[in-house]
Amino acid sequence: MGSTSEFNRRDLVKRAAALGIVAVPAMSMLSACAGGGGDDDNKVEKGKKSAKNPLAVNESAGLDVVIFDGGFGDKYAKDAQGEYVKSFPKADGKVKLSSTQKIQSTLQPRFNGGNPPDLVDNSGAEQMDFGTLVAKDQLTDLSALLDAPSVDDPGKKVRDTLRPGVVEMGQFGGKETWILYYAYTVYGVWYSKSNLQKLDAEYPETWDDMLALCAKAKKKGVAGWTYPGKYPYYLPFSLYPFIAKIGGAEVLRKIDNLEPNAWKDPAVKAAFDAYYELYKKGYVLKGSPGLDHLQSQKAWAEGKALFIPNGSWVENESAKQIAKNPHFGLAVGAPSSLSASDKMPYGTIWASGGEPYIVPRKARNAEGGMELLRIMLSKKSSQNFIKQVSSLTSLNGGTEGLTLPPGLASAQVALQKAGQNIVNPRLQDWYVALQKERIGVGALGEMMAGRMTPDEAIKKIQKYADDTRDDSSVKKYKR
């Protein structure tokens, strides 16, 4: 996610197309990746492997990097590029780093032509479908990077310096690791402590308290919630861990695995009913169904709504609005407890890798692409990222000596409180079109706009999941 601005977050797909279940743009990547030309003859010769060059990078070869220009920007990557040139001065002037919000439309012709970049930050609305990329053998296995010594401690492999679950997120049913998630995102219900204090309130740990606080806010002319109605796949950032809290992590596992009737679990119904009640009681900011991510975040940051489902990139992405209130007190809350019968404790939260990096299989300088990632996973580059964009990286630790901004500090506390109760749904990276266009726009967005009941939304989503499971052209994954 980070700026997976995520990771999957800047969807320009039209509502009509989404409701018609046209998988644009993800499905177009099927043909794009299937027909890529070129061959291994285009690859640069490897360099000499050494302690300082464990991946055998060709020291004088060029390097081509494309970064998603979202909530995290690209300065952190450019800074890491500078470190790369310091390590390989013969490559100075040959390292090209460009950024775009249109990853797929920019890179699809290059994948087709067999001349993709050496490293890609595959994020945003035009994120290329990972399931398709893996199924069509378009990615380089990153095991060589993971087994290389870390920059900071040559006695440790890179894989041993990463946060739990990061390596597994990049795997698709085998030992190969196709994706390296660079950012580490905490998802949940984001709010301003000062805005709650104005209502003499703290973050509500039960759903009854949430509804009572929203009612109190409504009397003051403040909405309880807002969300990006144009991109309603933000709703799962708090809704999915809410489902897990109510029914247990097993419910999300069944959903990820596309099991029959997984969406008909009572925990899903309970969670949907709770969110629908926000709409029915008028606790959602008017006009939210027509807002994009920036508009909803702006309204929330200006105090027009108390809560917004989001990821930890929101601190950087809303920095200008938040800065107008020096006492804002940005914080993240875990899903409120629905009842005493919830299967998981309060504090259960969704946290996982975000900002997914890939090295295309036909990259000319795959070793250079992996080396830049190795540099980015150093403590120096990680701390630079944290300071610039107020988000953690996948490096386990790396915050020593840093003064964390309020939102990131709150995210750290949330992680500590959650302990082992951290969930990591895989639907959004295994089945992008299903998650975004069908579940998000086609059902959740309709429900929260009042155009569909929870029962209707569940029935529709279950059919979408069944159709995906039964579609032989879509590769399936299990957890």
UniProtKB/TrEMBL annotation:
It is found in: Cell envelope. Residues 1-34 form the signal peptide. It comes from the Bacteria. The keyword Secreted does not apply. Keywords: Signal, Transport. InterPro entries: Bact_solute-bd_prot1, Chitin_NgcE, SBP, TAT_signal. Its main location: other. Belongs to the bacterial solute-binding protein 1 family. This is N-acetylglucosamine/diacetylchitobiose ABC transporter substrate-binding protein. It comes from Streptomyces caniferus. The gene is ngcE.
